Automatic annotation (TrEMBL), chain A:
Belongs to the aspartate/ornithine carbamoyltransferase superfamily. ATCase family. It catalyses: carbamoyl phosphate + L-aspartate = N-carbamoyl-L-aspartate + phosphate + H(+). L-aspartate binds at residues 84, 167, 221. GO terms for molecular function: amino acid binding; aspartate carbamoyltransferase activity. InterPro entries: Asp/Orn_carbamoyltranf_P-bd, Asp/Orn_carbamoylTrfase, Asp/Orn_carbamoylTrfase_sf, Asp_carbamoyltransf, Asp_carbamoyltransf_Asp/Orn-bd. This is Aspartate carbamoyltransferase. GO terms for cellular component: cytosol. Its EC number is 2.1.3.2. Heterododecamer (2C3:3R2) of six catalytic PyrB chains organized as two trimers (C3), and six regulatory PyrI chains organized as three dimers (R2).
From TrEMBL, chain B:
Belongs to the metallo-dependent hydrolases superfamily. DHOase family. Class I DHOase subfamily. Its EC number is 3.5.2.3. Zn(2+) 2 binds at residues 149, 176, 229. Substrate binds at residues 57-59, 89, 275, 306, 320-321. It comes from the Bacteria. Keywords: Hydrolase, Metal-binding, Pyrimidine biosynthesis, Zinc. The keyword Magnesium does not apply. GO terms for biological process: 'de novo' UMP biosynthetic process; purine nucleobase catabolic process. One of its GO terms (cellular component) is cytoplasm. Gene3D superfamilies: Metal-dependent hydrolases, Urease, subunit C, domain 1. Pfam families: DHOase (PF12890). It comes from Geodermatophilus nigrescens. InterPro entries: DHOase, DHOase/Allantoinase_Hydrolase, DHOase_cat, Dihydroorotase_CS, Metal-dep_hydrolase_composite, Metal_Hydrolase. This is Dihydroorotase.
Length: 305, 428
């Protein structure tokens, strides 16, 4: 593993597989144990530096670090010196001076973790940067697919929704194709980036046409405010053309799974009965997120210790 | 003061001596001998008319921490410039006779280059109503170039009126061509790379749409139009078409758009963030070809100094712009002269003669011939140097060429016969 986890595009097949295998070992080691804690990162300090509100990702990283016995500091940009105008660089240097070994950063600016990695000695983990990447989400998604379907090679994954603004989609495109899966992106043309043609994926505007062949369907969160910028005419039209409801779900093959990174807009991109169906891995993804993030922190911080 | 330059190759020709006296070129010839003259050995050096920049941000008044008229003038002289047009987006904006006269006077006091203020087209650069263009034209600063640079004059009716109005004093509107609705939040060229990097795209069409509109307006009202920092292959095509139709349009390209591509954004280092953004290889080649064939008239630096804190940040938070004055000529050597696209006469034309003509500067862009103003530079074309931002004369350090080796070294610059640079160092 490299020193940082900045983007899924950085991970080669061996690195990515190592993370998934390590997560599986962690799950096996903790299975059935009353005390779900490993001593691996005792004495190490992990800072969660969150410039965007993200309760679930922050909690997941916090839990992952704590289960590895690391000391965890949560630094939220709101109500801190950042709101008084402190720069990212000064904040990072301050945290490092206090002895942080790893900084887990969530930021609204694409590339912020890359900048951070230039300024600090410790490891930087990208917990979502702007519309760029969210590599641990892709790792937990890959882990979930592998657990459910037993493999990733040749698995057909359909990613549906606001690809243009989605860091989850970007990370999944790179990671899943690195791991041998075939990715199809489905969205209205307005929500696909110009340049998507250079990605190693299939692109479709027609959800119904691709569903029968899918092994996994990943629904992306669509923010209703996108319709104010004319990315689509209305929430209702979006839902009708690109939402996953029970009727569409019936077109899936028997083993196909339905995924969502959360938080969901029930009734918008995904119907409640789909989200709660046996095909849905949505709750499982959350649990797997902790294991995968433990694996990442372990490999970055504890692997060679 | 009398200076005798020995053995300079004027426009790369045969070595000749130049006698500078009373601010003018007094004589050009082989083996001149003038008792009492200060002798400058120019063996192996190329003499070019002093460069003229149509597009410089000197930041004064308002951001003297990033650049002042004096520090920017020194950077310009070191780059071989004898005249620079100071853009209007200062604080306060150069939209009145008072502000342009202040900038002009600061330039006179620094005395390193002729600082020619650009006047804002609209009050406060807000794009709502015309600034007092005539007052700025009639002021001591003698403004002829008007620009809201940094902002596009997006309202087509207002642009039409501006183009028409400045005809009264032979002015020109220099348009920052950027359709603002197409570039909301834009961070880099829109294409494969922006898609992957997750940076909001700045489509080429946002520049080209405005150029297309404005050349039609300029033709309709019979006015002069100048297009700032052309950055796309499509823009070059539009300009070629417009010129073939007889539209009075001129255009400039920056050194960085001639050399660098959007690949620089991969680092997320905002030193490469600039507006318009760095584009593709294909665009770079089209810009070089357009400059070589004269479709693009001039190289203009868009020298944009920024304080460290405005660049040492996340990409999206950083201000756009990069330094250019001290490396402009070297970049043109690297991008056009060494590949054989432009000869020395071509360099003089695109970096001195034509920009001076666009700005209506009588004393610049003149041939190095007896009786002409002694504005010139001496260049060592064989020298190569690695760019060190800390060694620049600019008050800022945001050079995109840091660590890059570039050809050519300006050895001396003369403004009306007075050396502003000697032995590669500023005289004051």
């Amino acid at each position: 593993m490299k020193r940082h986890l900045l983007e899924a595009a950085d991970l080669d097949r061996d690195d990515a597989t190592l993370v998934l295998d390590t997560a599986a070992q962690i799950d096996a080691a903790l299975a059935g144990r009353e005390v779900k804690k490993l001593p691996t990162l005792r004495g190490r300090t992990v800072v969660n530096l969150f410039y965007e509100d993200s309760t679930r990702t922050r909690i997941s990283f916090e839990l992952a670090a704590k289960r590895l016995s690391a000391d965890v500091i949560n630094f939220s940009a709101k109500g801190s010196s950042v709101s008084k105008g402190e720069s990212l660089k000064d904040t990072a240097l301050t945290l490092e001076a206090m002895g942080s070994d790893a900084i887990v950063v969530r930021h609204s600016a694409s590339g912020a973790p890359h900048r951070l990695a230039n300024w600090v000695q410790g490891s930087v983990v990208n917990a979502g940067d702007g519309t760029h990447e969210h590599p641990t989400q892709a790792l937990l998604d890959a882990y979930t697919i592998r657990r459910r379907l037993g493999r990733l090679d040749g698995v057909r994954v359909v990613v549906v929704g606001d690809v243009l603004h989605s860091r989850v989609a970007r990370s999944n495109v790179w990671l899943l194709t690195t791991l041998g899966a075939q990715v199809t992106l489905v969205a209205p043309p307005t929500l696909l980036p110009v340049g998507v043609g250079s990605w190693p994926v299939e692109v479709s505007y027609d959800l119904d046409a691709v569903l029968p062949k899918a092994d996994a369907v990943m629904m992306l969160r669509v923010q209703a405010e996108r319709m104010n910028a004319s990315f689509f005419p209305s929430a209702r039209e979006y839902s009708r053309r690109y939402g996953l409801d029970a009727v569409r779900m019936a077109a899936l093959s028997d083993d196909a799974i339905v995924m969502h990174p959360g938080p969901m807009n029930r009734g918008m991109e995904i119907a409640a009965d789909v989200a709660d169906s046996v095909r849905s891995t949505i709750v499982e993804q959350v649990g797997n997120g902790v294991s995968v993030r433990m694996a990442v922190l372990y490999l970055l911080l504890g692997g060679n210790a | 003061m009398t200076t005798l330059i020995k053995g300079a190759r004027v426009l790369g020709g045969e070595p000749a001596d130049l006698l500078l006296k009373d601010g003018r070129v007094a004589a050009v010839g082989g083996r001149l001998s003038v008792p009492g003259a200060t002798v400058v050995d120019a063996d192996g050096l190329v003499a070019l008319p002093g460069l003229v920049d149509l597009h410089t941000h000197l930041r004064e008044p308002g951001r003297e921490d990033a650049e002042t008229v004096e520090t920017g003038s020194r950077a310009a002289a070191l780059g071989g410039f004898t005249a620079v047009h100071a853009m209007a987006n200062t604080d306060p904006v150069a939209d009145t006779a008072g502000v342009v006269e202040q900038v002009w006077r600061l330039g006179q006091e620094a005395g390193l280059v002729d600082v020619v203020p650009v006047g804002a087209v609209t009050v406060g650069l807000r794009g709502e109503r015309l600034a007092e263009l005539g007052a700025m034209a009639d002021s001591a600063a003698r403004v002829r170039v008007f620009s809201d640079d940094g902002h596009c004059v997006a309202d087509p009716a207002l642009m039409r009126r501006a183009l028409e109005y400045v005809k009264a004093f032979d002015g020109v509107v220099a348009q920052h061509a950027e359709e603002p609705r197409l570039t909301v939040g834009a961070q880099m060229n829109e294409g494969d790379r922006s898609a992957r990097l997750g940076l909001t795209g700045w489509p080429a069409a946002a520049e080209e749409a405005v150029i297309a509109r404005d050349v039609l307006l300029a033709q309709h009202v019979g006015a002069r139009l100048h297009v700032c920092h052309v950055s796309t292959a499509g823009s070059v095509e539009l300009l070629r078409w417009a010129k073939s139709r007889g539209v009075q349009v001129t255009a400039e390209v920056t050194p960085h758009h001639l050399l660098l591509t959007e690949a620089c954004a991969e680092s997320y280092d905002p030193v490469f963030k600039v507006n318009p953004p760095l584009r593709t290889d294909e665009d770079v080649h089209a810009l070089r070809a357009g400059l070589a064939d004269g479709t693009i008239d001039a190289v203009a630096t868009d020298h944009a100094p920024h304080a460290v804190e405005d660049k040492e940040s996340e990409w999206a938070q950083a201000r756009p712009g990069m330094l250019g004055l001290e490396q402009a000529l070297s970049v043109v050597l690297e991008a056009l002269v060494e590949p054989g696209l432009l000869d020395w006469a071509g360099v003089a034309d695109r970096m001195s003669v034509r920009p001076a003509a666009i700005g209506r500067l009588d004393g610049h862009g003149r041939p190095l011939a007896p009786g002409e103003p002694a504005n010139l530079l001496l260049l060592d074309p064989a020298a190569r140097a690695t760019v060190d931002p800390a060694a620049l004369a600019s008050r800022s350090r945001n050079s995109p060429y840091a660590g890059r080796e570039l050809p050519g070294r300006v050895v001396a610059t003369f403004l009306r016969g007075e050396a502003t640079v000697l032995d590669g160092k500023a005289v004051k």
